[in-house]
Amino acid sequence: VMTLSLLMYPVLRSLALQLHSAITGSYISGTHSIAFINCLNEQIAKDIARAIMDKKLAACVNILPKSSALYFWKGELEESTEILLLVKTRTSKIGELSNYVRSIHPFEIPEIISLPIDQGNPLYLKWIEESVPRD
């Protein structure tokens, strides 16, 4: 019984949080995420952003202007200019988003990282929820 209780805890906690959220209208921390994706240039960034939106993998993709990047690649210090995409989506879509972007991105190892959204404007978070289909 003790082992079963420990194994069921994450599921029961998730269900309790979802029920609480449905009753109170409150946001469950981590339900949505922001993914960061770097691109070589503006055209590639726009192409990837449009592809993400066409696949309904995000509610919104911001394309931020050029930034300088310093990084090690194959043992050498490199410097480049990159365009950053900020992708707002459901946390449950991050794996699918990452797989899709890797399949279309020209970099050998594209930067695709994400952070969960802890809090925010409830109306905006609801909009993300409505804009990105469930799994």
TrEMBL record:
Stored Pfam families: CutA1
Keyword set includes rRNA processing: no
Matches recorded under InterPro entries: Ion_tolerance_CutA, N-reg_PII-like_a/b, N-reg_PII/ATP_PRibTrfase_C
Molecular-function annotations in GO: copper ion binding
Assembly behavior: Homotrimer.
PANTHER family linked: CUTA DIVALENT CATION TOLERANCE HOMOLOG-LIKE, DIVALENT CATION TOLERANCE CUTA-RELATED
Stated family: Belongs to the CutA family.
Name used for this protein in its record: CUTA protein
Gene behind this protein: Cuta
